[in-house]
């Protein structure tokens, strides 16, 4: 029974790693679509979001099956509940990549992001990518130190988010309201992507240590 | 055992109803803060978000305890997993009310929403309130027909969201970029509130019928 549980848990972990790699690839490609007006990249992200949703459903089915068959308790039960939370966060991160891709597509062939904002979005995307990489890594090999780093990386995302608004609200903003709206929503998509990465890290820390942090806003 | 499970499930259901009523009250008060520049209302929403977070943790603890003690299967297990999903959606709806309140507070004593947009936000808030009311109702007394109505009500929210952008992007928009950014984010907060209400309804439908719908974007 115990070995069977370990084997099942391993399958669930692998599904979560697959999800994390999937959403990382999705956000990379969505960023390329955004910054280089790459229509094909945007379409690929949107098409492949269904694969991430499928993985999410697989995790749920596996966990429910495992709860029903094995009735785990204590840390094994905690691992199952954590898997559900993590899968939900990753599924949402996939949606946010999809939203970035759709914004790129809506403005295509024009770029959705004007020249002044490209450095900020390039940096936001780099941070999002680092966070997704760390998430995939801690899901493959749980590590409190690596998970805790996510919170620090998220501070850099928040700083970028603030500097985005500083540019949009500068007196010399030349692009009008429509571009400001796009940039506001895009900024929010990257920031929420990072928030979900932090949530995921907190779930992993809880799994390892049993210590919880309050839900993030 | 069976009676004990029913009693425990009843406690979990009541916690979810309390959460739904809490987030409904929070969004009503956040809207008042927004539309009447009511500082006290905004502060109350922000202070009381911790109560919703506490309820969320109580649901999680109760469900984990129940899974460990009673090892439910089939529809009883489904009810537990559904409770976790619903609690997560409601917790997030509380955060969104908190975001609306914080936006109102940031602009106080100026109104965050200019006169031209008040009718749209009044309508969005009315729909959000109807949705929260229906959610509290289906959680107290699961009903597929009432839950299914949420999707239709959400269409009205999406229409309002589109008309918000039409006003912001009109040639005669007189308020500049900052007000447009606030309105964009506020529109997103109400729209996401509605999305989570629809998710909750879908979870309730799944609980009753065993039929699932794909995760919403």
From TrEMBL, chains A, B:
A Pfam family: PhoU
Biological-process GO terms, alphabetical:
intracellular phosphate ion homeostasis; negative regulation of phosphate metabolic process; phosphate ion transport
Residues annotated as domain PhoU:
17-103, 122-203
Q: Which Gene3D superfamilies match?
A: Phosphate transport system protein phou homolog 2, domain 2
Q: What is this protein called?
A: Phosphate-specific transport system accessory protein PhoU
Question: Quaternary form?
Answer: Homodimer.
Tell me which domain of life the UniProt entry assigns to the organism this sequence originates from.
Bacteria
InterPro entries recorded for this chain? PhoU, PhoU-like_sf, PhoU_dom
């Amino acid at each position: 029974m115990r070995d069977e549980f370990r084997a099942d848990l391993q399958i669930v972990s692998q599904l979560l790693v697959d999800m994390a790699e999937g959403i990382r690839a999705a956000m990379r490609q969505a960023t390329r679509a955004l910054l280089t007006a790459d229509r094909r990249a945007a379409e690929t992200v949107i098409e492949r979001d269904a694969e991430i949703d499928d993985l999410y459903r697989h995790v749920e089915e596996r966990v429910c099956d495992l709860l029903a068959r094995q009735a785990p308790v204590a840390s094994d039960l905690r691992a199952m509940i954590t898997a559900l939370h993590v899968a939900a966060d990753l599924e949402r991160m996939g949606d946010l990549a999809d939203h970035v891709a759709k914004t790129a597509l809506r403005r295509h062939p024009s770029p959705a992001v004007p020249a002044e904002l490209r450095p900020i979005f390039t940096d936001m995307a780099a941070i999002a990518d680092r966070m997704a990489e760390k998430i995939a890594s801690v899901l493959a090999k749980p590590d409190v130190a690596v998970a805790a780093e996510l919170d620090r990386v998220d501070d850099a995302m928040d700083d970028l988010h603030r500097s985005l608004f500083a540019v949009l609200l500068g007196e010399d903003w030349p692009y009008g309201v429509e571009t400001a709206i796009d940039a506001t929503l895009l900024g929010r998509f990257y920031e929420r992507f990072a928030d979900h990465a932090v949530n995921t890290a907190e779930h992993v820390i809880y799994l390892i240590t049993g210590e919880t942090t309050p839900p993030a806003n």
